[in-house]
Amino acid sequence: MTTPAPAPLTDRASYEAAVDTALAASAAYYGEGDTTYSDARFDALVREIAAYEDAFPGHVRADSPIGKVGGGVAPVGDVAHTVPMLSLGNVFSAEELTKWGASLARRIGGPAAGGYAVEPKLDGAAIAARYRKGRLVQLVGRGDGAHGEDLSHAIGTIVGLPEQLDNEATVEIRGEVLLTQAQFEKANEIRTAHNAKVFSNPRNGTAGTLRAKDRPYVIETTFFAYGAVGLDSVDFLVGDTHEKVMAQVQALGVQTTASTEVGLRTCKTLEEVQARVEEISRLRPGLPFGIDGVVIKADSFAEQETAGFATRHPHWAIAYKLPASEAQTKLLRVVWNVGRTGNIAPTAVLEPVEVDGSVLARATLHNPAFIRDSGMMIGDTVMVWKTGDVIPRIEAPVVDLRTGEETPIVLPEVCPKCEGPINKSGERWECAGGAGGGCGLLPSLKYAAGRDQLDIDGLGVTYIEALLDSGDVADVADLFTLTREQLAKAARSEKRADSLLAEIEKAKAQPLNRVFCALGIKNTGRTLSREIARHFHTMEAIRAADAESLAQVNKLPGANAPKIAARIAELGPVIDKLVAAGVNMTEPGADAADGETKAEGPLSGLAVVVTGGMHGPLAHLNRNAMNELIEKAGGTSSSSVSKKTSILVAGEGAGSKLAKAQQLDTKILSEQQFADLVADYLT
Ligand code: IVH
Questions:
Q1: 181 C-alpha vs ligand 1 centroid, how far in Å?
Q2: Ligand 1 atom at minimum distance from 120 CA
Q3: Closest protein CA for atom 17 of ligand 1
Q4: What's the confidence (pLDDT) of residue 2?
Q5: Residue 204: in which H helix or E strand, if any?
Q6: Predicted local distance difference test score (pLDDT) of residue 30
Q7: Which of 445, 429, 417, 422 shows the shortest CA–CA distance to 344?
Q8: In this predicted structure, what is the pLDDT of residue 34?
Q9: What are the two backbone dihedrals, phi and then psi, of residue 368, each rounded to the nearest 5 degrees?
Q10: Does residue 261 contact residue 660 with C-beta atoms inside 8 Å?
C-alpha cells in the first residue's frame, strides 16, 4: 500500500506538521475541489491529531481542525444559518452502535420508542435550499455550521431540487449534493472538451462544481434531502417524525434519501438497525452514486428534542461509517489487451491496495483518448474505487503528489498481439485485422464456441489455438467441417475428438440468434442478436436487410445499423460456409410472415428483469438462457428495473434491483413462482 496509516504523533513537531498537512489538504479540497488525500487517509490523520491533543491539551493549536465543522477550513460565507448545520458523530462497528444506542437511551429514558430511521450517508456536499412561496430562492453551503456561502448560482443545475414547487411552501430543505457516477463521467467529458483538469473522483468533483461560478459550461449534479427546518416562522412542516417530514418533502417534488435506491427504513430495535446497515453495505457497490456510511436517527421529533445536541452534532443521530470504498495507490504500468473484436484496450496495473475488503490491482483506462485526456503517467498516484462494474475505476492523477520521476504512458505503435497495423480512426483502437481476422481471431473463436453462443462444450482456448496453428481453422465456419483426425490432433486424444465432434454436431442445431451472435459482429451482443433473429427469422432475411431495415430492430441504435449491415455483408463467405456445413439458419418461435415476431405465452406483453443467482428449477440457466426463456414465453427481457418493468425475478443475493423494484412497487416473483409461470417452456 502506498498510503500507510499515519504514524502516531509522539512529539510536538510532528503534531504541528500533521496539523499543517490536514489544513492544507482540506483547503485544497474546499478550494479546487481536489485533494491530495483520500478520505480514509485524511480521517486517520485527523484521528492521530485528536489523540495527540487529548494527551497534550496544552499544545492544541487555535487553528487545529479537530472538532470544527468542515475541519475549520470550509469556505465560510456570510449567510447566517437559521438553525446551525451540524456534523454527525461516527461509529464504525456493531459494538460502537450499541454504545451510541445506550447513551441515547440514557438521555431519553429508554430505547427510542419511536424507532430509528435508517438512510444512506451520501458522499457529497451539504447544502440548505431555501424555498419561499414554492420558489427556490437561495442555496447556502454548510460553511462553519453557523454561516455558509451563498451558492445560489447553482440553482437550476441540480437534479432533484426543482426551482418551482407545485405547492407554495416556505421551508428550508437540507441535504446532500453529489455527482452520480453517470454525471461524474459526463462532467469529465465536458471538462476534457474545455481543456479543464478532469475530476479525480465524484466527491471532489461535487465540491468544485458547487463553488464554481464563471465556468463556460454547466455540470449537472444531484440532490437528496435528509432534513428540513422552518423558514421565516412559517409552519410548513407538520410531521412529527423524520420519516413523515421526508415524505412531505418528497411530495413537494424534491428528492430525499427515501427516493434513493437504498431508501429510508424505520427499524424498531438496534439489532434491526445493524442488520439494515449490513444490507446497505451489500447494496453499496451497485448504487449509482457513492455513499460513505449509513445515518441512523431517532425517528420521533419528540425524542430528538429530549436527546438534544452536543456542540457540533446531535445526540439523536449517528453516522455508521462503512469501510472506505476508495484508496490511493500508484500506477505501476499499463498493459494492452486485444478483445474478441480486435479492440485494443489499456488496463492499469496498480500497486495492490485494499478497498472495502478486496484487493484492487487493476483498473480500466478505457482507451488511448482517456489516457491522453486524463494526463496520467506511469508512477502517478491515483485514486481507485469500486463501482457497480467488475473492473474498478481510476480517473485522474493526483498531480500534487508527483515526484518528477513519472514517465509518460507509451501508446502502442502496432497491435500488441500480432504486431500488425492498428486502426486508430475511432476513439477505441483496434487491430486492423478486425474481428474474425488478425489477432482478434482466437478470442473471437473462443467467444463463438462459448456457452451463450454455439455452446460447444470442451472446445477451450488450448484446442482452438492448436487448430489455428495447424491452419485447420481460419474462421468460425471451419469449426463445422473439422474431421475426427484434425480434432484428435488438436485435442491430442481420439476420445476427446469424439466428444468434440458430437458437441459440434449438436451446435449445428442452435437457434439463429446464437449462430448470429457467434459471428462476433461488433455492437451486436447476446441481447441484440436475439432481437435481430426474432425480427428477421432467417439468416437470409438478415442478409437481405439494409441499414434502414436493421435500424427497425428493437434496441438497435440507428447509428450502428450501417456498420452492422456492412459487417454482415463482409461475412457473406463465412455465412455461406456455415450454410453449406448444415448449420441451422432459422429462429424457432419467431413468425416471419407478418413481421410480428413476438411469441404468444404467459409473459406476452410483459417486461421481465432477472436479478440474483438462480436456484432450484432455474439453476441450470445462466442470464442469457433466462432471457431466452423469457422471450420464448412471449416476454421481453431487460437488465435494469424501471417504471416499465412488469416483473422482477429475484434470486439469491438480489440487491439494488430488488430495492428499486420494491420502491417502484413492481411485481416481484421468486424463482419458484417464476418457474411455475413458465413451466411449459422449461426444458
Ligand atoms: S443528517 C443534524 N443525514 O454528513 C444532523 N447527514 O458528517 C445533520 N450527510 O453534514 C446531518 N447523508 O452533509 C444527515 N442522510 C444523511 C446524510 C448526512 C450525508 C452528511 C451531511 C452532514 C455530514 C455529517
A1: 20
A2: 15
A3: 121
A4: 39
A5: helix 202-211
A6: 66
A7: 429
A8: 62
A9: -60, -35
A10: yes
Minimal-distance CA residue to ligand 1 atom 1: 226
Residue length, the chain?
683
What does the CA dihedral 7, 11, 16, 19 come to, rounded to 10 degrees?
A: 40
Q: How many CB atoms lie within 10 A of CB 233?
A: 7
Cell 506511469 -> residue = 378
pTM score: 0.58
User: Other C-beta atoms within 10 Å of 582: how many?
Assistant: 12
For residues 151 and 132, is the Cβ–Cβ distance under 8 A? no
Q: What is the largest CA-CA distance in the chain?
A: 90
Ranges of the chain whose pLDDT falls below 50: 1-4, 435, 592-596
CA of 87 to the centre of ligand 1 (A): 6
Q: Which atom of ligand 1 is nearest to the CA of 227?
A: 1
| Catalytic annotation, residues | 121
CA-to-CA distance for 331 and 350, rounded, in angstroms? 5
Output the residue whose Cα is nearest ligand 1's atom 22.
Answer: 87
Q: What are 304-354's pLDDT values in tens digits?
A: 999 999 988 999 999 999 988 788 999 999 999 987 678 899 999 999 998
Question: Hey, is 376 helix, strand or coil?
Answer: coil
- Asked if 532 and 553 touch (Cβ cutoff 8 Å), the reply is yes
> Which pLDDT value is given to residue 1?
38
- Measure 111 CA to ligand 1 centroid, in angstroms: 22
Detail the DSSP E strand segments found in 240-399.
265-267, 291-298, 317-321, 326-338, 343-355, 358-364, 377-378, 381-385, 393-397
Instruction: Give the span between the Cα atoms of 19 and 66, in whole angstroms.
Output: 9
Domains located in the chain, CATH noted: 12-72 (1.10.287), 79-321 (3.30.470.30), 326-408 (2.40.50.140), 438-507 (1.10.150.20), 512-597 (1.10.150.20), 607-681 (3.40.50.10190)
Q: Report CA(335)–ligand 1 centroid distance (Å).
A: 41
- Joined together, the cell numbers standing for residue 241 give 417524525
Please report the pLDDT score of residue 77 as a whole number. 77
For residue 121, the CA-to-ligand 1 centroid distance in Å is 6
Would you say 231 and 131 are in contact if contact means Cβ atoms under 8 Å apart?
A: yes
- Please list the residues that pair with 335 across neighbouring strands: 347
In testing the pocket of ligand 1, which one of 42, 68, 119, 121 has its CB within 8 Å of the most ligand atoms?
121
DSSP element (H, E) containing 607 = strand 607-611
Give the pocket of ligand 1 (CB within 6 Å).
86-88, 119, 121-122, 126, 142, 176, 226-227, 257, 295, 314, 317, 319
* Matching residue, cell 423524520: 242
* Phi, psi (degrees; rounded to nearest 5) at 638: -150, 160
| Residue nearest ligand 1's atom 3 by CA | 226
Taking the CA of residue 313 as reference, the ligand 1 atom at the shortest distance is 2
The closest-lying atom of ligand 1 relative to the alpha carbon of residue 142 is 10
Compute how many other C-beta atoms are within 10 angstroms of the C-beta atom of residue 19. 23
Measure Cα distances from 632 to 524, 533, 621 in Å. 20, 12, 14
Q: How many Å separate Cα 165 from the centre of its chain? A: 31
In whole angstroms, what is the distance from residue 129 CA to residue 171 CA? 8
Distance from residue 89's CA to the centre of ligand 1 (Å): 10
CA 86 to ligand 1: nearest atom: 2
Ordered DSSP codes for 354-374: EETTEEEEEEE--SHHHHHHH
What letters, b where the CB count within 10 A reaches 16 and e where it falls short, cover 495-518? ebbeebeebbeebeebbbbbbbbb
